[in-house]
Write a structure and sequence with these properties.
Blueprint lengths: L16 E5 L3 H12 L3 E5 L5 H19 L10 E3 L3 H5 L4 E4 L5 H14 L5 E4 L6 H4 L9 E6 L8 E6 L5 H13 L3 E4 L9 H17 L5 H9 L2 H5 L4 H8 L4 H19 L7 H14 L5 H19 L7
Helix pairs in contact: 1-2, 2-13, 10-11
Length: about 325
């Protein structure tokens, strides 16, 4: 990250060491990615056997990261683990927090991190739904608290959503955007705090209708997965909804598409369902997914998923006009 090497504003220093606080699925994936980008990682997690699980996860992710290309100096040996939060934070230039999705725990955790670090160190949270305006409430330096929400798995999926709370400084938001971009992420600035941010809200809209269609007996869970994975999902992996709509409009582009399909789309919106996740629907979905998983394991699917993601990311990196 090319920023000033001195100063007290958030982000005004080069990031060499990242503190990863919380090393579950998301935190371990982040740690592997930071290491692959040539950074030092200082990690901490209070769970039993956290260090062994973290090192095993890094080793498991490393072959995919090697295929994508390692930065100079990248090595799993640059990972250190501490049982103490304060010890793990010592010397950190950037913090990526990945604790449980509980507001009270986050508030206390950020209070402790804020008290332990100089005011220029950006504190970023991976929270998938909490608002930074509340998380930063107990901090002495709330201006350096941002959301840096990744998409799972962070060591492969480039997206990071960056959002500030009401007390976050513009400098901290920009420092986070600059840092994530410098290490190869696709960082976007979410301009207003909303529950679930951007990508999770878009996912939630799809999930709602997916649950509704199962509940109404329109399709099985496998039918819906096939419809997305072999239909719009293939296009969405290349371009987002707006560029896809534009391309579907032919010579007239997005304008023609909206004029032509606007009324039908509105009629589909009006017909979408609003299911509740009842015990009966849970059982229906669980049964459908268990049938899909027959003869497979989650580890098998994750390994193939990661292999395909590496290939897709490599192909996308060679495109000229598709972002």
């Amino acid at each position: 990250m090319q920023v000033s090497a001195s100063g007290s504003q958030p982000g005004q220093q080069e990031v060499r060491r990242v503190a990863v606080v919380g090393t579950g699925v998301i935190g371990a994936s982040w740690a592997a990615y930071f290491l692959a980008r040539g950074l030092e990682v200082s990690a901490t997690d209070p769970m039993p056997d956290a260090q062994a699980k973290l090192r095993a996860a890094v080793a498991r992710h490393w072959p995919s990261l090697e295929l994508l290309g390692l930065a100079p100096g990248a090595s799993p040996e640059r990972l250190r683990f501490s049982d103490s939060l304060e010890e793990a934070l010592d010397g950190a230039d950037f913090v990526q927090e990945n604790g449980p999705e509980r507001e009270d725990l986050k508030i206390d955790l950020f209070r402790r991190m804020d008290a332990a670090l100089p005011a220029h160190v950006v504190l970023a949270s991976s929270s998938s739904g909490l608002l930074m305006s509340k998380v930063q409430a107990a901090c002495r330096h709330p201006g350096r608290v941002v959301l840096g929400h990744p998409f799972n798995p962070p060591h492969l999926i480039p997206l990071v959503e960056v959002i500030g709370g009401v007390q976050t400084s513009p400098e901290a938001v920009q420092a986070a955007l600059d840092f994530y971009s410098a290490i190869g992420k696709k960082a976007i600035h979410v301009r207003k705090e909303v529950k679930g941010h951007i990508a999770n809200r878009l996912q939630a809209a799809l999930w709602r209708e997916a649950f509704h269609l199962v509940e109404q007996g329109v399709a099985s869970t496998e039918d819906i997965d096939t419809a997305i994975a072999y239909g719009p999902g293939l296009r969405w992996a290349l371009m987002g909804p707006y560029l896809n709509l534009h391309m579907s409009g032919g010579e007239g582009g997005i304008g023609h598409m909206l004029d032509h399909l606007g009324p039908p789309i509105e009629s589909w919106w009006a017909d979408l369902g609003t299911p509740s996740i009842s015990d009966a629907l849970k059982a229906q979905i669980r049964s459908g997914v268990q049938e899909q998983m027959s003869g497979k394991t989650s580890a098998d699917i994750a390994a193939e998923r990661d292999q395909l993601l590496v290939q897709l990311l490599a192909a996308k990196g060679k495109t000229r006009f598709i972002p």
